């Protein structure tokens, strides 16, 4: 019924969903090539008239509200019948290598009625707190304000949050300790990374290295790889040796830097 009565709006919403999913810029709708393409599909030009950057932003907000509402209903229904009436959250604060912008994300975990662990991404927000929040507050205090807002937005009760996970960053670790005292646990990939750094002596601080033997071995291997990469003669010998021993050429990994 919705499609028949408002086909233009229906197609606009689907297009916006595609733009969000594929990280396409809103300004794309202003490109002449895009408008020509849409004009071929829509001879009446109704869709072209509606697709403006301003209207796209409004549709994004409406789609977010609708998606959030559906997710909240699903969460309430599944959590109400879960055999374990406790939740777990994972918090992350990271910096984009390209833009240097910081982002804050929260995941919620729970056990379904069928005893399956379910994960829901509640939010990924551009972390750029306003100036009035900064004076007199630590970064972890501001993160707690943001966490509270997201948790309350999805009507999640703090009483049901049993534990939390993060990396060992002081800000997010303190956030979890303040928010849910004595319930912080290691993120397994981050813990494994720290274990391997300690085991192979690849930490940036040479003074605190506990396995100098492994560190020296890795440095010697790097020298060999670097020499092969820089020498055309060694590259050819390396290729011939691989073909002789393996009957095919294997991929030659480049030198990977460590501290």
UniProtKB/TrEMBL annotation:
It comes from the Eukaryota. Its main location: nucleus. One of its GO terms (cellular component) is nucleus. Coiled coil: none annotated. PANTHER family: ZINC FINGER BED DOMAIN-CONTAINING PROTEIN 39, ZINC FINGER BED DOMAIN-CONTAINING PROTEIN 4. It is found in: Nucleus. One of its GO terms (molecular function) is zinc ion binding. This is Uncharacterized protein. Keywords: Metal-binding, Nucleus, Zinc, Zinc-finger. The keyword Glycoprotein does not apply.
